[in-house]
Design a protein that fits this description.
- It comes from Mariprofundus micogutta.
- This protein has 2 domains: 64 residues, Transcription elongation factor, GreA/GreB, N-terminal domain (Helix Hairpins, Orthogonal Bundle); 79 residues, Roll (Chitinase A, domain 3), CATH 3.10.50.30.
- 41% of the residues lie in helices and 22% in strands.
Length: 152
């Protein structure tokens, strides 16, 4: 994962272990105050939310512990590799698009971050400026011309 992706996951983990955990505990205590726990829907919902939160915390801790963190600004490559920010021209529509190739957990297409496992990233890996990448997308074949490659 990229350095920024690791920072984002750590911030999320801090939120889940701190503020979110405290809100769930407060909800459980409030539900307990209503009496009979066997028929208390609020209590059961809060306990279920607590379980999901703790599972997410464990998952994030595991991912961060096993992650290989890469700072794209330290990469000097002429070809597209993990961490690259690529300016493309969609040859089908004539529009410009910018994507950064990131880890699976930090992908966010709205923010221009595509997963290393996505069809577009797989078709771009190893290409250079001026090359055309052909992507097998769900809507059919798409062609992208690489305008520039940056590592920031």
């Amino acid at each position: 994962m990229t350095k920024q992706g690791a920072v984002s996951l750590r911030e999320l983990l801090e939120y889940l272990k701190g503020e979110k955990r405290h809100k769930i505990v407060a909800a459980i205590e409030e539900a307990r105050a209503h009496g009979d726990l066997s028929e208390n829907a609020e209590y059961h919902a809060a306990k279920e939310e607590q379980g999901m939160n703790e599972a997410r915390v464990s998952d994030l801790e595991d991912k961060l512990a096993r992650a290989h963190i890469i700072d794209p600004s330290t990469i000097t490559a002429e070809k597209v590799v993990f961490g690259a920010t690529i300016e493309l021209i969609d040859m089908n529509e004539g529009t410009e698009i910018t994507y950064q190739i990131v880890g699976v957990d930090e992908a966010n297409i709205e923010a221009g971050k595509v997963s290393i496992t996505s069809p577009i990233a797989r078709s771009l890996i190893g290409k250079e400026e001026g090359d055309v990448a052909v992507v097998q997308a769900p809507g059919g074949e798409r062609e992208y011309e690489i305008q520039s490659i940056e590592y920031v």
